[in-house]
Amino acid sequence: MLVLTRKSGESIRIGNNIIITILESPSGQTKIGVKAPLDVPIHREEVYNRIQQENKSALMVHDEMSNMLAKYVRGKS
Question: Which of 19, 38, 43, 52 is the most buried (most CB within 10 A)?
Fold first, then answer.
């Protein structure tokens, strides 16, 4: 992990298209701004983890439904 120290108003560039700017850092909480192309998803870590969990759950339901349908179709033959 790269660790950098930045002051308010300073930025970090990731590749050519992503800029992270420190907006303010008053009482232990830091506000940052992220400028990135619209096709680059940006999420807080807890939101990203929830999306991943929901995707896994949906895949499990899809697999279960596919298995049930396959058994049904085999039973009809």
Answer: 19
Query: What does the domain layout of the chain look like in residue ranges?
Result: 1-40, 43-77
Exposure of 55 by Cβ count < 10 A (0-12 exposed, 13-18 middle, 19+ buried)? exposed
| Spacing of C-alpha 67 from chain mean position | 30
Q: What is the DSSP string of the chain?
A: -------TT-EEEETTTEEEEEEE--SS--EEEEE--TTS----HHHHHHHHHHHHHHHHHHHHHHHHHHHHHHHH-
CA-CA distance, 30 to 7, in Å (whole number)?
10
